[in-house]
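Appendix B, example 12.
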Amino acid sequence: MEISTNTNTNNNNNRLPRMRTIPKAYQEIKKLDPDTSISMRGLRDLVSSGQIPTVKIKNKVLVNLDLLIKWLSCYNDTATCA
């Protein structure tokens, strides 16, 4: 699935992406959906397989939280999420 990297949803060109480490991104997902079936290991596997785009800074791997949420929301629904 192709993910658009344009996270600008409100035409504000100065909006920074919400970059999170994998554990913090997992915590955010759990806050949004306490009953989620995705695990920390599952999220790490998505990142290591390259399915979720990341930015690496020294030894930290950062995930764009907005893209992660979009990817999870659209995984099997490419017709409406393209």
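The longest strand covers residues 60-64. The chain has one domain: 19-81.
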